[in-house]
Amino acid sequence: MSAGMLYLLGSVVLDIIANLSLERSSGFKHRAWGILALVAIMAAFALLALAVQTMDLLIAYAIWGVLSITGTALATWAVFGQRLNWISWLGISLLILAILLMRLGS
User: Fold this and answer.
1) Where is the signal peptide (predicted)?
2) What is the DSSP string of 69-103?
3) Tens digit of pLDDT for each residue in 70-104?
């Protein structure tokens, strides 16, 4: 696995952590969680910036987006019990298909 892909995956993990922390912060009522969300998202974008040094921005950002959305959906289900309906899962599936098609086209 390339360094760019490792940076990208690290960025995705940090983005999911930021999203979960933001939910825990309850609109920044719990400041520590809010601060963690801000730090994690800044670190996520720093890693994304490193990733795009070795891959096209379009592909990196598209992969980052779909993995972050899917990961956040799964994490909020596991941590908070939030569930998506079948239409939402269909939408995520279409996003994944779109990323695969974009990757094949590049």
Assistant:
1) none
2) HHHHHHHHHHHH-----HHHHHHHHHHHHHHHHHH
3) 999 999 999 999 998 999 999 999 988 988 888 78
